[in-house]
Task: structure prediction
Amino acid sequence: MVSYLVAFLCVVGISIGQVLFKLSAASLARTGSLFALPTMTMLGCAFALYGLTTIAWVWVLQKIELGRAYPLMALAFVMVPIGSHFFLGERFTPQYFVGVAVIMVGIFVAVRA
Result:
């Protein structure tokens, strides 16, 4: 059970990393320089988070079969847009919610198989 919790935390980390990458891109557009402090800070945090998440994911794969663990990564397709809504002000369409429901059912079926 701990390994599934760590897998879930990996997905959260990947999702946060994606939002940080988007914030890095926005900072780059504002500053015009990859080496500007705000851009480098966001990008560095995203890389560090991805690095830690990758190490944790390798640990998860020691404990759980890949076929059971990997469907959890699909949760990122749910979490990233939610993060983009709250941190970037992006909007959803009704079709998005249908897609989220389909993804969630698919994850449930795949993990239970």
Observations:
- DSSP finds five helices and no strands in the chain.
- Residues 2-31 form the longest helix (30 residues).
- The mean pLDDT is 93.
